[in-house]
Amino acid sequence: MNPAVITRKTIARIALLADLPDPLIELLIRSCTVREFQRDAMLFTQGEKAEVVYAVLSGQFRLIQHTLDGQDVALSIFAAGDLIGMVAVIGDEEYPGSCQTADDAVVLAMPGTTIRALIYQHPQFAVKVVHLLAERLHEAHDHIRELTAERVERRLARAVLRLAKKVGIKTAQGIRLDMPLSRQDLAELCGTTLYTVSRILSEWQRDGLVEIGREAVTLNRPHSLVLIAEDMHDSS
């Protein structure tokens, strides 16, 4: 794909936008740009004025929030088809976290004012946006519950299973998480320490549940991880 060209096919790659009527798709084509980023580049930073919504065309991103004591907390992972920075739709808001590429990536940059125009002009699109925001609110509530009420091994199992659903690729060995992923990344995603994640992953690898590389994770026995995530006993 030529990154400078936006076509109807480009817009159709984003599920939320795919069913828009032709005049609104033309509005997107006129007002949006395609941007390329190398690994570890910043899409936006925490506290920056939110003016742009980004649709991921390829690659993955981490959303990170910086705490007052200098710690980083990974809030979410975004992959192809996801929308990032929806707060820009509201107007006069700041991005609540920083977003960084996990690998080389391409995004469709859409002005928040354009997305607001689509909402005003197309009620069905507005309903889809509400559903998306409600889904993310539920995810945030689930994450809060996990951090406050569940043991770390369950949280880690849930984190890798969510990643498998989002960026997993089936292989002969199992499901490979198709993104650069360090143990520190996993520790931030499930709200624990690097030491604890390393210990649990070593135990899982010893038991044949996962295969851990330098920046790669393969789930050899996803069903066993589901049982851990649901706090059920694996009779095998």
Order of helical and strand elements = HHEEEEEEEEHHHEEHHEEH
How big a fraction of the residues is strand? 15-25%
CATH class identity of the largest domain = Mainly Beta
- Widest β-sheet, arrangement of strands: 1-8-3-6
Kindly report the average pLDDT value: 89
Bin the helical content.
Answer: 40-55%
Structural class: alpha+beta
If you consult CATH, what is the topology of the largest domain?
Jelly Rolls
What value does the Rg take, in angstroms?
Answer: 19 Å
What is the count of helical runs?
8
Task: Using the 3D structure, state the CATH architecture of the largest domain.
Answer: Sandwich
What is the fourth-level CATH superfamily of the largest domain? Jelly Rolls
**Spatial gap, N to C terminus:** 47 Å
Q: Count the E strands.
A: 12
The tally of structural domains comes to: 2
Largest sheet: 4 strands, antiparallel
Q: Which blocks of ≥5 consecutive residues have pLDDT under 50?
A: none
Shape: globular
Structure in words:
The chain has 236 residues and is of the alpha+beta class. Helix content is 41%, strand content 22%. The chain has two domains: 8-142, Jelly Rolls (Sandwich); 150-229, Arc Repressor Mutant, subunit A. It has helices spanning 8-12, 22-31, 112-121, 123-149, 152-167, 183-189, 194-206, 222-229, and strands at residues 33-37, 42-44, 52-58, 61-66, 72-78, 83-84, 98-101, 105-111, 168-170, 175-177, 210-212, 217-219. Strands 1-8-3-6 form a four-stranded antiparallel beta sheet. Strands 2-7-4-5 form a four-stranded antiparallel beta sheet. The chain has a four-stranded antiparallel beta sheet with strand order 9-10-12-11. Strand 11 and strand 12 (217-219) form a beta hairpin. The model has no long low-confidence stretch (mean pLDDT 89).
